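Ex. 9. Protein: Importin subunit beta-1/Transportin-1-like TPR repeats domain-containing protein.
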Amino acid sequence: MATKRRLFASSLVGIHISSPILTKRILRICRDTMQVKCDCSDGILEAYSGILQGFKSTAKAPLLMPFAPHILQFLDSLYQEKDMDDAVTKTAVGLLGDLADTLGSHAGPLIQLSVSSREFLNECLSSDDHLIKESAEWARLAITQAVSG
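Predicted structure tokens for Importin subunit beta-1/Transportin-1-like TPR repeats domain-containing protein:
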């Protein structure tokens, strides 16, 4: 029994001693996980943008309308998490503009109803990053045209 206690105690000491190393590993894993999440989000946003741009000015563009609420929900979830890097932010606001630009008056009211989309757009418009701000200005123009229809 005493041997088991010593083994247990020595294993606890080992954990305590290595905790700074463990903390560094955990932080690195978290940072790597965040980067993978941002890369995946950016890829999904780019794919949606590509699809919308491919259908722009075609007779089949309205076929994408059933997917618009889901795209807005995805954008809303990214916005609510508040952990987008600048690349994802720029791509996300660009997608918002692509949605309005491609679907026009069909998507205008839907975008107007999305509180997160309006807040997100306003944050991007006041961004210090000129690329985000430029994309947001274009998205605002596309949304304005879609709403006025």
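Check your answer against this statement. The helical segments are 2-55, 68-81, 86-103, 108-113, 115-125, 130-148.
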